[in-house]
Structure formats: structure tokens, C-alpha cells
Amino acid sequence: MNFIAMRLWKSSAIQSIEEQSEQILAPSRNDINEFITQKVVVKALKRYLSGANIEKLKKCETIDQLIKLTREIFKICFNAYNTKAIKDLDYLTINCKIPSKSGKNIDSIATYAKQY
């Protein structure tokens, strides 16, 4: 093989490798479920759930909805960030109850504050 042929072969091989590396496959549903657990979601949302009663959150199944929401967002954002697709997930949290540590309904307080 002469120098030019070798150079062209190397160039096409490198280009092929680069194209393959750009095509990252999305993880399977099982992989996502194993990666994003309840513990991970609570830790990731700790700042936002600091006023919530986590035990009651589990009992009223809101935590399950938050886990589902987090997994769906992960799938959407794995390859590219898509704000519209994330906003379309509102249906997952629209009727969630968020019990507070103080016993007051956080959602009612937020709704009341918006009125004034």
C-alpha cells in the first residue's frame, strides 16, 4: 500500500469511528429503572422536598409520580434537552398531593398566594 492509499484508508477509518461514537444508544427502560430509584429521586429533589413529609408522600403515591417524571425527563434529555417535551409531562404531576411536615397543604397555600 502506498503512502496516499494508506492515508486515505486511515482517514476513512477515523471518520467511521467518529460517526459511530456520535450514535449513542439510549439506555433501556430497565437500565433507567435501575439507575433512577426512589432514593435517587428524593436525593435529587431534596431541596424542593425539604418542607414535605416524605413518609406521607410515599403513602399518597406522589413519590411514584415523581419517580416516573424523573425517569421520563432523563429519557428526553439523554441525547438533547427539549423544553417542550418536558413541559408536556405536566400531566404526571397535575393531581399530586404534597403533604408538608407542618401538616398544612402546600398546594393550597401556593394556590391561595397566587390569588393575591
Work out the strand percent.
under 5%
How many structural units, i.e. domains? 1
Look at the structure and give the mean pLDDT.
76
How many strands, what sense, and barrel or not for the largest sheet? none
Regions with little confidence, pLDDT below 50 for 5+ residues: 108-116
| Number of helices, where a helix is a run of at least 4 consecutive DSSP H or I residues | 7
List the helices and strands and how they pair.
Layout: H1 3-22, H2 29-35, H3 38-44, H4 54-59, H5 62-77, H6 83-87, H7 106-115
Can you tag this structure with a few keywords?
116 residues, mainly alpha, single chain, disordered C terminus
How would you describe this protein?
The termini are far apart. The radius of gyration is 23 Å and the shape is elongated. Helix content is 61%, strand content 0%. The protein has one domain. The protein has 116 residues and is mostly helical.
